[in-house]
Amino acid sequence: MTAQALDRRPISARKLGASRALASALARAGVTPNQISLTGMLAGVASGLALALTPLAPGMWWRVLFACAAVLILLRLLCNMLDGMVAVARDACTPLGELYNEIPDRVSDTATLVGLGFALGGLPLLGFTAALVAMFTAYIRAMGKAVGGPQQFCGPMSKPQRMFTAAAAALFCALAPAAWQPEIGVPALALLLVCAGAALACLRRLARVASALKGARP
Questions:
Q1: DSSP characters for 116-156?
Q2: What is the pLDDT of residues 149-165, one digit of tens each?
Q3: Inter-residue contact 201 to 141 (CB < 8 Å)
Q4: Looking at the predicted structure, is the pLDDT value of residue 212 above 90?
Q5: I want to staple 198 with a disulfide (CB 3.0 to 4.6 A). Which of 51, 155, 157, 167 is the partner?
Q6: What pLDDT shows up at residue 8?
Q7: Half-sphere exposure of 101 toward its Cβ, with a 13 Å CA cutoff?
Q8: Are 108 and 41 in contact (CB under 8 A)?
Q9: 3-state DSSP percent of the chain in helix, strand and coil, to 5
């Protein structure tokens, strides 16, 4: 296993037998990690589009769009986990793979969070703000690694937590009776949580990077 493979976000689901079996099957089938990363990006973009279309859907089709968005968000997270596992299984960890791992993530995050802002019960400004803060968390992580520190994946509202929050909000909107909907839309509430949590994560990551660099030899 390469150093690149070891320097990954800790995800407990990687240890599940089903996850390992699926990753092994994809590797044997010749599916590349980069193809999985791009599939995840397409799922992320499609989730954002589905969310943004909910105010325009006729009848009750907005519920179907919310449900589709939730499934697509979870599919994106599955791809995010599997691309690294397949890379390890195929011994295919490369510098180019890092680009395929990082850039699609930023596109997916932005599409999903902005889409949630335009969804029924959302606020576009909150969507754009959440996307910006989410990107800053990734920037701090990448910058910390670039200057010689360890990558910081701490939350709250790290990437998996942001996406689970968005998926939960979409699923609630898809299934909950109208009487359960709060006065402030669930998408807007979810985005407020993402903004607050990701801002705190930025501060924690900055503090950890600074502490690691202070302890390093000049």
A1: HHHSTT--HHHHHHHHHHHHHHHHHHHHHHHTTPPP----S
A2: 888 889 899 999 999 99
A3: no
A4: no
A5: 157
A6: 65
A7: 24
A8: yes
A9: 80, 0, 20
pLDDT of residue 19: 85
Length of the chain: 218
With beta carbons less than 8 A apart as the criterion, state whether 163 and 9 touch.
no
pLDDT at 2: 37
For 30, left (φ over 0), alpha (ψ -120 to 50), or beta? Answer: left
> What CATH class has 6-215?
mainly alpha
DSSP annotation string for 205-217 = HHHHHHHHHHHS-
Q: Residue 195 and residue 90: Cα distance in Å, rounded?
A: 37
Distance (Å, whole) CA 125 – CA 1: 43
Question: Cα(86)–Cα(192) distance, rounded to whole angstroms?
Answer: 35
pTM of the model: 0.91
